[in-house]
Design goal:
elongated; single chain; alpha+beta; six-stranded antiparallel β-sheet; about 260 residues; Immunoglobulin-like
């Protein structure tokens, strides 16, 4: 949970950014043609210098612009291959980290919504919400036939890791709800099927494969991380810090990027 006064999310993001920045530079160094990249950058600099020195000579300027475009394309082609080795594992890492750093648990005394999306709008009246001790509804269910949704407004009386149940047509479908503070693995939605969508937006097992409920949704508040006098979304902070770390490590290790 972290001690009072300790910005644990910021510490985690800084640490991960340094590690990822170093790993990306090392992978880039081992998987790229360093000599060709060095040559491509030198050639690009030469064309830029020619553009500056002969800016009053239109034919030279036009040729320089064309060569700059070709040199840039050649450099990007050389740099693209190493990116393929890191972009897939990095994407899945960020998806997992977002479970912890992207949102904060729900607060006690603050209402939140539990939304259930069903296959058939005609069956909305059949859905009911069963809450454990510590959670209570604060208003009657709202039916939204155009969205095939039933919505309940719920409030937590005390912190906890809860399981709420939705009953429909004699079947029970559960959803995890976290109330409290600190770092917890959060999943805003539980889905049926949709493997790829579940991989990116849900951290819970798939709902049973039937023709009743498509999704159970509980939206958590977004987390902002205080760092360097600003409030950051963790992905932006990670991007900035890992990029900065990469430039530092490339200079230390002498790797061309």
């Amino acid at each position: 949970m972290g001690s009072p006064g300790v910005n644990l999310p910021a510490i985690i993001v800084v640490g991960i950014s340094l590690v990822i920045g170093l790993l990306m530079v090392v992978v880039f160094g081992y998987t790229s043609d360093q000599k060709s990249i060095h040559f491509a950058k030198d050639r690009l600099k030469a064309h830029l210098l020619a553009l500056k020195l002969f800016q009053d000579q239109i034919p030279v300027v036009i040729r320089s612009y064309g060569r700059i475009v070709l040199a840039t394309g050649h450099y990007l082609r050389l740099a693209f291959k190493p990116l393929l080795f890191v972009i897939v594992p990095l994407t899945f890492l960020m998806v997992q980290l977002d479970r912890y750093l992207g949102s904060v648990p729900l607060e006690t005394g603050h209402a939140f919504l539990v939304k259930v999306r069903m296959d058939n709008p005609d069956t909305l009246n059949e859905a009911s919400l069963q809450l454990p001790k510590g959670l209570a509804t604060t208003a009657p269910a709202i039916h939204v036939p155009s969205e095939r949704e039933v919505v309940w407004r719920v409030m937590a009386e005390q912190p906890g890791d809860y399981i709420v149940n939705v009953q429909a047509s004699g079947q029970t479908f559960s959803k995890r709800v976290v109330v409290g503070s600190g770092l917890s693995r959060l999943s805003p939605v539980r889905l049926r099927g949709k493997l790829w969508e579940r991989m990116f937006v849900s951290g819970e097992p798939a709902l049973p494969d039937n023709n009743l409920i498509e999704a159970i949704d509980v939206q958590y508040p977004s987390r902002n991380i205080a760092f360097a006098g600003f409030e950051w979304n963790w992905i932006w902070l990670f991007f900035v810090l890992s990029l900065a770390a990469g430039f530092v490590f490339k200079s230390i290790l002498g790797i061309e990027i």
